[in-house]
Amino acid sequence: MNKIRTGDEVVVLTGKDKGKRGKVLSRVDASRILVEGINVSKKHAKPNPMRGVSGGVVDITMPIQQSNVALVDPKTQKATRTKVAEVEGKRVRVTKASGEQLSA
After folding, report:
1. Smallest Cα–Cα separation from 13: which of 99, 72, 63, 73?
2. Residues with Cβ within 8 Å of residue 54, at least 6 apart in sequence
3. For residues 33 and 26, is the Cβ–Cβ distance under 8 A?
4. Structural domains of the chain ordered from first start
């Protein structure tokens, strides 16, 4: 069971975006994730009239290591770790700080 999933709110622990919060857009692979507004870099794009793409410098979100982010506790709004617990026969993610159950 992945501790960080698509749609979770996370806070960055290290790097140039330390302290920023964002929503997980997708998982790239087992250890890298895309977070909205985090690790944004500039890319020079050529114009392509067939696709309707105008040229210039565009912002693109790059993947970040999963170990560099932490889930945000919905109760305290601080970074927290999670554990897997059984509630009514189902395995769910629970925050260690407040014991709050995470969605889905």
Report:
1. 72
2. 47
3. yes
4. 9-95 (2.30.30.30)
What confidence category does residue 78 fall into, taking pLDDT thresholds of 50, 70 and 90?
very high
Q: Is the confidence at residue 104, as pLDDT, over 90?
A: no
Question: pLDDT per residue over 36-62, tens digit each?
Answer: 999 999 999 999 999 988 889 999 999
2 vs 99, more confident: 99
- Closest by CA to 62, choosing from 84, 36, 92, is 36
Tokens of 72: 């945000």
